[in-house]
Design a protein that fits this description.
The complex is a heterodimer. By secondary structure, chain A is α+β, with helices and mostly antiparallel strands. Helices cover 30% and strands 27% of the residues of chain A. Chain A has one domain. The radius of gyration of chain A is 25 Å and the shape is elongated. The termini of chain A are far apart. The radius of gyration of chain B is 13 Å and the shape is globular. The chains are: A alpha+beta, B mainly alpha.
Amino acid sequence: MIKQMLVICIILISLVSFASADIIREGYRGIHITNHIQNLEDFPDYVFISYGQINPAMCPIKIIDPPGREDTGQVEIYYKHCSPSIYAIPKDKFNGTELISLNTKKVLNEQGIIDYVSNEEIISYLNSVGAIEVIKKIQTYTEVPIASTEKERDYFYTIDLNQVKEIPDNKKVVRNSLVYIFAGVSILALIGIITAIIFSVKKRK
Amino acid sequence: MILELFFVFLLTFLIELIVYFIFIRERKLKIVYYCFLINLFTWPLANIFYVIFQQFYLIEFFVIFIEGFLILLLFKLKWEKAIIISLISNMITAGLSFFF
């Protein structure tokens, strides 16, 4: 009986902790970060992909600018706990169908349970096709205070196949007009306060 | 989001107004008007500075000091009383911000 209760408690606690992982902290709100690779056209012999590092079910492999889509060099948005890395795969070794099928492929794992392909297997596959990591752990989501003026962020990368970038070369913050409204309101209130003080001083005279 | 911010401002204003009513002997309308002006000046500034510096306690300290100074000027109270009114009203609103 105690064992059963213990198991139930553990399950409940893990469910609660999993649920709270998705909750935005009190007083904060989430914003998206769009990551741009600026010089994809410099590498015509490579296909660029992003992969989220946890597992392909949660943070799938995505092709950056797949055929049929305009060349933007834009990395797609991921679930907030994913920290995708960007890989360059030589075109002659690239098999898009095989790569994308890894996102949904299920295998028998070490515990004898049918599960998605593990992160290690994905990394091993990427190594086998000569993938080069060019950007490590990009952010696609962050949280800012609720009164923050930040609307969204754009991070820009210029890649080099001989270097693993960890920080963007340029950052752009798109802000909403709240800061100007706040400042304007404050100035108006200050004018009101000064007027009231002057008025009361004159009245006393 | 605008509505949420407006609600937070309104709540801050109303709470501080109650404290002003308890401690200040003046015409009610005058208290409402000055309390509104004081809050309209400090609340948006505090939010902007919080976004920039993320220093809650430091910003609250400055808010208490500035509001105390404004209470002193507008209601012509002794500085000790002005600071106490500001301290109490801001401690209540700051304290409530941890719960809501």
